[in-house]
Design a protein that fits this description.
mainly alpha
């Protein structure tokens, strides 16, 4: 079959079905991302922002689907940024975790992520730091904001130092 044929083949349909089951969703998402990235990304979204009652493990599991697909999920960045702009804590957690999972391909989210360095909820501030680190060296433009938070927020210091050093963004003040 042609590459376009693979995207609609029974194999990719089966992988979409498996991805939504509890067993081996990451393996299915990874395989689907290799043969039909657009299908893998589309399969990520059902339920991603429709389950406000999930606990922290449930939140991580939903976002972990994005780790399985990786940069191919960058096409969903507008949806994730819309989620990040919502007032709900869980929406923000899911969006930050998914952006982090996409990695450097989600660098366009940097300004929105940086805004969360000053969020009132400590967990979201931590996640913002981790997400900035996951965006890689291109996120170095956020260094002034990280330095500011380093000085102002002791709860973030270890996270900021780790992420800044991890990607070679450290400055004299970190």
């Amino acid at each position: 079959e042609s590459l376009l044929g693979i995207a609609t083949s029974p194999v990719s349909s089966d992988l979409v079905q498996v991805q939504h089951q509890e067993a081996e969703p990451c393996a299915a998402a990874s395989a689907l991302a290799k043969i039909a990235p657009e299908r893998a990304v589309a399969a990520l979204l059902p339920g991603f922002d429709l389950d406000p009652g999930s606990d922290d493990i449930g939140q991580w599991w939903l976002a972990s689907r994005f780790y399985c697909v990786g940069p191919a999920a960058a096409s969903e960045l507008p949806h994730l940024l819309e989620m990040l702009s919502r007032p709900g804590f869980r929406d923000k957690v899911r969006a930050l975790d998914a952006i982090k999972a996409i990695g450097p391909a989600a660098i366009a989210a940097l300004p929105d992520v940086v805004e969360h360095l000053k969020h009132s909820h400590q967990n979201l501030r931590w996640r913002a730091v981790w997400t900035i680190g996951a965006l890689g060296p291109a996120a170095a433009e956020a260094l002034p904001q990280l330095e500011e938070r380093f000085a102002a927020d002791p709860s973030l210091r270890n996270y900021i130092v780790r992420e800044a050093h991890r990607f070679g963004m450290a400055s004299e003040s970190l």
